[in-house]
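Subject: Re: docking follow-up (S-adenosylmethionine)

Dear J.,

Thanks for your patience while I sorted out the input files. As discussed at Tuesday's group meeting, I've set up the holo structure prediction with S-adenosylmethionine included as the bound ligand rather than trying to dock it afterwards. The sequence and the ligand SMILES I used are pasted below, so you can double-check that they match what you have on your end before we go further.
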Amino acid sequence: MTASDEPPPGDLARAIDESDFAWSLVLVGEDQRDKLAALTSDLLGKPSTAGDGKQITSGYAYWGIGPTIAWAHACADPFYLVMKQSLDSFTRRWARVRGRIGEGFHHVSFGVGTGHKDRLVLEHLLDRNPAMLYLPVDMSSEMLRLGTREATHRVGLRGHRVVPVQLDFSITDNLDELRELVHRLVGDEPVLYSLLGNTMANFDRDGELLANLTALARPQDLFLLEVATTEALSDELAQDAVEEYARSRAYREFVTSALLHNTDLTIDVDAVQFRGAVEGDRALRVKVVYQNLTGADIPMMLPDRTRVPFPDQDTIRLYLTRKYARKALDVIVREAGMRKVTGTHSDFAAPRSVQGFGMDLLLLAPGDQPPEAKPVDDLARDIWAN
Ligand SMILES: C[S@@+](CC[C@H](N)C(=O)[O-])C[C@H]1O[C@@H](n2cnc3c(N)ncnc32)[C@H](O)[C@@H]1O
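The structure tokens for the complex came back this morning:
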């Protein structure tokens, strides 16, 4: 390197690009003490045997290095069918929708996870926009580090085109700030937003979350949504959905890892229970709870070192998930102010998996569905997808 090639003082982007060391820059959007206080207050809920009091809300389930590692393990567990199928079939489903995404897109990914899917998205977008910016957004800085590295490894995206953002995207004020940041960075160029891996299903007010996230999309932008789906709704199928999660020990270890790391409870993975129900005409819902089955009240220390009782039979809701009725998807999309550009469905093909359970990948755009008939190529794609 000649003296004139030396990065000028302060050229952080170039200094990182030219270093062999695995630096990663993260924009931290929130004071993490506030997050710890919110987690503490969620664990102070009233006693409930049904998972309606104390809880770990989405985001906190993945927050920190322990839950991040536990999530990566769960994703690799062949018994955790939803994630395995979601990862295995994503290449195929993505290949069917990506043709509808034009040139010049940037990418904002809500909830990066292990980064495997983002990698496929980046490879495609980067081919069509060498100046692409990638903004993975996640509450967990450790997940951002892990997922961003997987997503960008050998993809050819220069370090300074990657802007990980640590932010809780369930808070609307945060989304206002994110919108401003994204628009300042990309100007009028189009953005592909994504919410993959059935992440939407983890939120109590899932429809509201989707509407808030999709509200970032301008007319030139697109939104990629992946959800777990079911052809039908019944109590029996809700039990089948429960079985799917209950099978995986790695999944139980993941859902309890936030408790393990933020309280002094001695975790018994057999105290993890799965409660299935039909949620109106839109979804099968599975609540994952940790129940005190010891026959005695247990003192529990919270992250701020206060001690509270965890009474006998009381529960802590660890996780919430759903399988959406395929028929309800159009309404869910419309209520979020979006329309479907294209979509693909894949059935779970694994042995012992329930007929009618699968994953849908939808490419959405802002605005109403035009009243005219579906384009022929969409119809053909749907037929091949089934
Ligand atoms: C179910 S995983 C999906 C990961 C990945 N998109 C995939 O499909 O494999 C959910 C991801 O969203 C993140 N997440 C969940 N709730 C969040 C929130 N409220 N704010 C920011 N990130 C959140 C988690 O940390 C995790 O990385």
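A couple of observations from a first look. The chain has twelve helices and 14 strands. The CA atoms of residues 255 and 301 lie 19 Å apart.

Let me know if you'd like me to rerun anything.

Best regards,
T.
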